[in-house]
Amino acid sequence: MRLGLLALVVAAGLAVGCNSRPAAVTSSAPVPSPATPEEAAALAARGDFAAAAERYRELVQRHPDDVLLRYAYAVVLSHLDRRQDTIAEFTWVVANGRPSLPEVASARQWLREAGALGSAEATAGESATAARVLGTPTTPAASGSALPSPQLRGQTSWPGVNPEVRRVKLVIRLVGEDDGNRNINLPIRIDLGKPYKAAGIPPGAYHLVGQSGNVQLWDKHIVLEPGKEMVVDLGPESSSVSPSNFPPPAS
């Protein structure tokens, strides 16, 4: 939440408190705390996308012009397979965000892969036209200048683990470390021994963590570049855990 908006919210809360009678305050039910971006991101990180979507919906209602919030909301909606809502939010991001923002490039890539980019570009064009009519300076991206989002893929492997014989659940988490991607916390759930892939994500530095249950098998720092594919294989040679200690014997 921006400082100016936070001050307005605090002032409004003080005004309500001053105009309320003590008896009404003490007898009323507790008022839920407003959602925060940190709370919404934490819920998404835990995979509770339904609760995260509700928090982001509340945040977007309070700050409808915040591009990063709208982008994060769209990402969570995509995990819930709410296609039309996701298209609507990503379309808004493309139409209203600065072309140089990685979130805008990522939203455009998602819409392109979903076959919905045409309507988003038309909306963006309408916004640019309106801005010129109103005399607002705009900086439209040059045709063909935007690079596609980076791609990340790799193979997971572990001695003695065959996903066709014994399933060992694995969560690979991609956590943004830059100012431009700090709202990204992407979990990829697969069986250990199978490949993984992430697409439509902003470029930048990330923390790549692989965990099975309570055991952290991998912890890497990577940098994804626009328009490039990065291959990061996750095996015993890059793990701090010995194959003799994981996985536990089958029961």
Q: What order do the helices and strands come in, and which of them pair?
A:
Blueprint: H1 3-18, H2 22-27, H3 37-45, H4 49-62, H5 67-79, H6 83-96, H7 102-113, H8 117-134, E1 151-155, E2 169-176, E3 185-191, E4 195-198, E5 204-212, E6 215-224, E7 229-231
Parallel strand pairs: 1-7
Antiparallel strand pairs: 1-4, 2-3, 2-5, 5-6
Strand order of the largest sheet: 3-2-5-6
The secondary-structure class comes to alpha+beta
Principal-axes shape call:
globular
Strand content: 15-25%
What kind of sheet is the major sheet? 4 strands, antiparallel
The oligomeric state is single chain
Number of helical runs?
Answer: 8
Following the backbone from N to C, one meets helices and strands in this order, namely HHHHHHHHEEEEEEE
Alpha carbon gap, first and last residue: 49 Å
In the predicted model, the low-confidence regions spanning at least 5 consecutive residues are 1-27, 122-145
Describe the structure.
With 251 residues, the chain is α+β, with helices and mostly antiparallel strands. The protein contains 8 helices and 7 strands. It has helices at 3-18, 22-27, 37-45, 49-62, 67-79, 83-96, 102-113, 117-134, and strands at residues 151-155, 169-176, 185-191, 195-198, 204-212, 215-224, 229-231. The strands form 2 sheets. The chain has a 4-stranded antiparallel β-sheet with strand order 3-2-5-6, covered by helices on one side. Strand 2 and strand 3 form a beta hairpin. The longest helix has 18 residues, at 117-134. The radius of gyration is 22 Å and the shape is globular. The chain starts with a helix and ends in a 20-residue tail after the last strand.
